[in-house]
Write a structure and sequence with these properties.
195 residues, alpha+beta, 29% helix, extended, two-stranded antiparallel ribbon
Length: 195
């Protein structure tokens, strides 16, 4: 029987690799698979039935995909870079390979898709030097607050005279955006947005 490998294209379309050839899968039904070319010309009938079962398994398994596609990571990273910086980057083929290798080494837990997850895994609460990175977690609810900072960052924040904040308030209700530094004297105004 032929070896069948399921993968995805850079645009996240299903891809079947069979006998060294890659075929994009356009449509599946209960008894056949429709792709760019006749994928079954070299396969026998038994392989067609196995292929249908494997494709159904593939689509059920696809829901466990918990990180963005490699190309999406690159696209997101390039959005704020200047043209000169992009020109200095290595070939994207090498960048993609490095991203995929790093993902394989990290063995990170599944990414939660809502704010009501119970526990942040221990691996994500400490930095590489085993210093505390998760400073505060209010617990699982819709108003959850999670604060991440290293000890050095907290020390810098404590010693600063002024706190200048810049951010995107696109997803935050206007009435709830206010920054204040209660440890310093109240001679200067707090940074507030729409109070």
């Amino acid at each position: 029987m032929s070896t069948l490998i399921f993968s995805t294209t850079e645009k996240n379309k299903p891809l079947l690799i069979c006998k060294g050839f890659a075929y994009t899968i356009n449509k599946t039904t209960n008894d056949k698979l429709i792709g760019n070319v006749n994928m079954f010309e070299n396969l026998n009938v038994k392989d067609k039935l196995t292929l249908t079962a494997l494709i159904q398994y593939y689509y059920m398994k696809k829901d466990n995909h918990n990180h963005p596609a490699t190309q999406n990571v690159i696209d997101y990273s390039l959005t704020n870079l200047s043209d000169n910086t992009v020109a200095c980057l290595p070939n994207f083929k090498h960048v993609k390979r490095n991203i995929q290798n790093r993902r394989g080494k990290n063995d990170l837990p599944e990414i939660p898709h809502d704010k009501t997850f119970n526990l942040i895994p221990e691996k994500l609460t400490t930095a590489k030097r085993n210093s505390m990175f998760l400073q505060f977690d209010s617990g699982p609810n819709n108003d959850r607050i999670i604060m991440f900072a290293s000890d050095e960052q907290l020390q810098l924040l404590e010693n600063c005279e002024q706190l200048l904040v810049d951010g995107t308030f696109k997803f935050i209700p206007v009435s709830t955006t206010c920054y204040d530094n209660p440890t310093k004297d109240r001679s200067g105004p707090a940074a507030c947005q729409g109070m």
